[in-house]
């Protein structure tokens, strides 16, 4: 079979032909708190290319975005709505499978007071304000607004099959071009997956048939489908979406990109009441750890029952248990949990570190899990009423801690601070080693709970809040904020089934394991470890002190304006006016003129600046710090004073530009200037001044998580690289850690150092190689990009007349990764020229250097060896 649409775009991206610069009409009009993630930018870039450049783009554009639960599908919808409004679309229909999702989505799209509102307080497109309106029909919509009809598939189907007055009809989609947005779109494929009977075929009354009929009413209608669970393994589904699947970002990739919590299966031979009590203790422990690190987090527990009567009974047991909880109960729990490392760690933290007695801890739990902080959502009407409350669980004003449910939260539930799911039953439905339907639903619920709770830490301010931070240091206290605990009864067959279900959904990777990276005793006793320092720089806000005008953002002062015409009737095309064809047919002659923008008059220029918030003076000063006032920006030759524009149009128009035309030309130039400034602006820089930190504070024993398959997951003795097996790395004191995990090139670099150790020992008193596992970062001078070099090599000279200690950053690199990360090599080479440091500490002189990439073969090998040979011959820097 030929490439899918998604695969074609994968190739386009791989060869660098996909423009990922997202237009300002999208970025500026999303909520300020939304920072588009790389994969979202990729998906938007594909859509923009498809709409503008895709060859033989079909009528009825129909696209599928297959995106993992929690990956921000509604953010994508908002971004595409903004772009499609810019393209001239005004009517949008959002439809899903359940009413509860409709209410949540309305909040996200329509309520600016909602914490999850997706848009800027004031949407501005083409310098005009745009409102968002909810509508029941498209008969009397505003042409200056984004008009959205919210409905369910079922309601839409009923309305179309049984038309009523003042409601949406099939004619609406014939007369008004419409963008149809389907969330949880897998529900649309019942007709595709299952054969229809003859009656259904004739009547075409299936939901999918209704949507298809609506879609085909107008050749400019667009259908955008979003789902996390498209059954792309199904032959008919795969065939249907072969040329429609634009973006495929499954849960497995989402988790591997560190955007989700990790799943911890907690199984125990304990009754439901005790599992509930354990979950409460762990939840409160999690809250305390977060608070100790300055993070506001209110962890939520989901108590999952098999039936509604069981759920109601479990809720009553829980309320009784909390009401009567005391220190004796907690001591009993401790005694029953002697083999439970997580529970013992929680109590140790509370009792030993926080100095709380068990009675005091019990009182605290009673307050935090009191009756008003518990909710049961098994009643459908009550669930609809509580939908907003359930989707604002992260807000400070929302005090819910425990939710009792059966299966009402399997779709459309967006919650980030769910950390515990307690399975309060012990049945299973798997047969013949196959995952049962109920177990798969449980795995999908776990996937919803695995949405990452965003937070930052003072020592990792440059790491995205929404990404995991401690995969390479799983013993860090805050790791507990990156894990979702699934509590269940110890039933080996069920554990096997839920594990298989989690593997199928992509939330579990059996090829991952925890490995210990331990410092050697000899290194711990060394002078370098106990008294030595490592030098790193910092990332700071770019003050742009060297910016003196537009030229510093690579902005030329000569612009062109699109064809200017008045009084000419042009043919309409799908995406605008085909003016050139009209001009050729009517033989209208045009001319060109060049104007200085300042000649349009101060009033025009000032109005154009005022109408674009980017050019408000307070914002301009962040990009042009030497500006003393808006007049300087308007008049100075370094800014707009020297800007000219070439305009093509009718002679009579060019001789007598109207105020409206002058304003349109000026606004067009300003938009181009804004786009260029934003593209070239650098928010951060790496300091050239390096500071020192004790090696013993940064380099410690670590528990790291590694993939089992491949060289990177193997230790030194397990390596399959030829020539390593005869090197006893444990006996090499210069290698600071007991084992060596890493790629083939990283291990080959260690071998390279072993092969040259005799030469190094002739020149240096001692030398040590330290593997950098999240111990330190350095930041590129130019743009502040964070970089964690794989290795730091310390060389201590014998000759006291030269710099005593040399610190070398070294990065082994696989050949396929070199080109995309060439900036790292450039940065390493820059270090020698730019580093500023107070090099004398306790009588020791330090020099910090970076080397070219190491690779065993090719030019990288030659470049590295030439650079490293300097250190082998005692000609290294003084």
Topology (elements, then pairings):
Blueprint: H1 5-14, H2 24-27, H3 38-53, E1 62-67, H4 73-86, E2 91-96, H5 99-110, E3 123-125, E4 128-134, E5 145-152, H6 153-161, H7 170-175, E6 178-183, H8 190-193, H9 198-203, H10 207-215, E7 222-227, H11 235-240, E8 245-249, H12 251-256, E9 262-268, H13 272-292, E10 300-304, H14 308-323, H15 327-336, H16 341-353, H17 358-368, E11 374-376, H18 380-390, E12 402-405, E13 418-423, H19 437-449, E14 483-489, H20 492-505, E15 512-517, H21 521-524, H22 527-531, E16 533-536, E17 539-541, E18 558-564, E19 571-573, E20 576-578, H23 579-586, E21 591-596, H24 602-610, H25 617-623, H26 630-635, E22 644-649, H27 651-655, H28 659-680, E23 684-686, E24 691-694, H29 695-698, E25 702-707, H30 744-755, H31 757-763, E26 764-771, E27 778-779, E28 786-787, E29 791-797, E30 805-810, H32 815-818, H33 822-834, E31 840-841, E32 844-850, H34 858-872
Parallel strand pairs: 1-7, 1-8, 2-5, 2-6, 4-5, 6-7, 9-14, 10-12, 10-13, 11-12, 13-14, 18-22, 30-32
Antiparallel strand pairs: 3-4, 15-25, 16-24, 17-23, 19-20, 21-22, 26-29, 27-28, 29-30, 31-32
């Amino acid at each position: 079979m030929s490439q899918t649409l998604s695969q074609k775009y994968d190739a386009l991206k791989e060869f660098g032909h996909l423009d990922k610069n997202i237009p300002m009409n999208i970025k500026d009009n999303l909520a300020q708190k939304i920072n588009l993630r790389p994969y979202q930018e990729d998906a938007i870039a594909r859509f923009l290319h498809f709409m503008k450049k895709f060859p033989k783009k079909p009528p009825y554009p129909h696209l599928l975005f297959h995106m993992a639960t929690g990956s921000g599908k509604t953010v994508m919808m908002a971004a595409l709505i903004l772009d499609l409004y810019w393209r001239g679309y005004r009517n949008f229909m959002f439809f899903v499978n359940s009413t509860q999702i409709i209410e949540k989505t309305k909040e996200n799209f329509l309520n600016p007071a909602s914490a999850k509102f997706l848009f800027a307080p004031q949407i501005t497109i083409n310098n005009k304000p745009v409102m968002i309106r909810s509508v029941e029909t498209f008969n009397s919509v505003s042409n200056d607004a984004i008009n959205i009809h919210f409905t369910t598939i079922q309601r839409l189907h009923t309305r179309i099959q049984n038309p009523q007055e003042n409601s949406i009809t099939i004619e609406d989609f014939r007369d008004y071009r419409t963008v149809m947005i389907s969330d949880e779109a897998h529900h649309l494929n019942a007709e595709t997956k299952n054969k229809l009977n003859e009656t259904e075929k004739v009547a075409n009354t299936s939901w999918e048939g209704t949507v298809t009929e609506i879609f085909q009413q107008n050749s400019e209608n667009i259908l955008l489908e979003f789902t996390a669970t498209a059954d792309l393994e199904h032959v008919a589904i795969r065939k249907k979406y072969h040329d429609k699947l634009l973006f495929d970002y499954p849960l497995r990739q989402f988790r591997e990109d560190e955007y989700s919590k990790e799943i911890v299966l907690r199984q125990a031979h304990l009754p439901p009441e005790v599992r509930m009590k354990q979950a409460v203790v762990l939840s409160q422990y999690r809250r305390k750890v977060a608070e100790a690190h300055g993070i506001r987090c209110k962890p939520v527990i989901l108590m999952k029952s098999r039936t509604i009567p069981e759920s109601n009974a479990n809720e009553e047991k829980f309320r009784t248990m909390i009401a009567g909880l005391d220190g004796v109960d907690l001591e009993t729990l401790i005694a029953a949990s002697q083999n439970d490392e997580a529970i013992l760690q929680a109590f140790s933290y509370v009792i030993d570190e926080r100095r709380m007695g068990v009675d005091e801890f019990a009182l605290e739990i009673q307050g935090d899990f009191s009756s008003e902080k518990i909710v049961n959502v098994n009643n459908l009407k009550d669930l609809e009423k509580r939908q907003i409350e359930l989707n604002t669980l992260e807000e400070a004003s929302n005090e819910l801690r425990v939710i009792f449910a059966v299966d009402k939260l399997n779709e459309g539930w967006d919650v980030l601070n769910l950390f515990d799911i307690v399975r309060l039953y012990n049945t299973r439905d798997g047969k013949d080693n196959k995952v049962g339907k109920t177990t798969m639903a449980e795995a999908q619920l776990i996937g919803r709970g695995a949405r990452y709770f965003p937070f930052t830490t003072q020592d990792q301010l440059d790491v995205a809040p929404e990404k995991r931070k401690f995969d390479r240091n799983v013993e860090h206290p805050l790791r507990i904020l990156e894990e979702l605990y699934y509590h269940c009864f110890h039933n080996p067959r069920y554990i096997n089934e839920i594990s298989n279900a989690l593997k199928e959904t992509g939330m579990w990777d059996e090829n991952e394991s925890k490995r210990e990276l331990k410092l050697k005793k000899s290194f711990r006793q060394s002078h370098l470890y106990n008294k030595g320092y490592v030098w790193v720089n910092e990332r700071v806000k770019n003050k742009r002190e060297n910016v003196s005008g537009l030229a510093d953002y690579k902005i030329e002062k000569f612009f062109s304006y699109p064809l200017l015409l008045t009084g000419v009737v042009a043919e309409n095309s799908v995406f605008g006016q085909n003016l050139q064809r009209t001009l050729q047919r009517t033989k209208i002659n045009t001319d060109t003129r060049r104007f200085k923008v300042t000649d349009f008059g101060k009033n025009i220029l000032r109005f154009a600046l005022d109408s674009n918030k980017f050019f408000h003076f307070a914002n301009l000063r962040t990009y042009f710090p030497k500006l003393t006032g808006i007049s300087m920006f308007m008049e100075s030759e370094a800014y707009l004073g020297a800007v000219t524009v070439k305009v093509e149009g009718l002679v009579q128009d060019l001789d007598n530009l109207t105020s409206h035309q002058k304003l349109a030309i000026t606004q067009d130039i300003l938009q181009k200037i804004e786009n260029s400034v934003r593209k070239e602006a650098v928010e951060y820089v790496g300091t050239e001044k390096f500071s020192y930190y004790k090696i013993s504070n940064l380099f410690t024993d670590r528990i790291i998580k590694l993939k089992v398959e491949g060289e990177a997951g193997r230790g030194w003795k397990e390596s399959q690289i030829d020539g390593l097996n005869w090197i006893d790395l444990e006996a090499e004191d210069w290698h600071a850690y007991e084992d060596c995990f890493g790629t083939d090139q990283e291990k080959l670099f260690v071998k390279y150092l072993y092969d040259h150790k005799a030469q190094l020992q002739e020149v240096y008193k001692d030398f040590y190689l330290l593997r950098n596992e999240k111990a330190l970062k350095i930041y590129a001078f130019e743009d502040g990009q964070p970089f964690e070099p794989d290795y730091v090599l310390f060389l201590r000279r014998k000759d006291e007349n030269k710099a005593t200690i040399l610190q070398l950053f070294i990065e082994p690199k696989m050949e396929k990764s070199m080109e995309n990360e060439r900036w790292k090599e450039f940065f390493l080479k820059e270090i020698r020229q730019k580093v500023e440091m107070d090099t004398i500490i306790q009588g020791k002189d330090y020099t910090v250097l970076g080397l070219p990439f190491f690779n065993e073969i090719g030019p990288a090998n030659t470049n590295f060896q030439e650079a490293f040979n300097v250190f082998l011959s005692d000609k290294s820097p003084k």
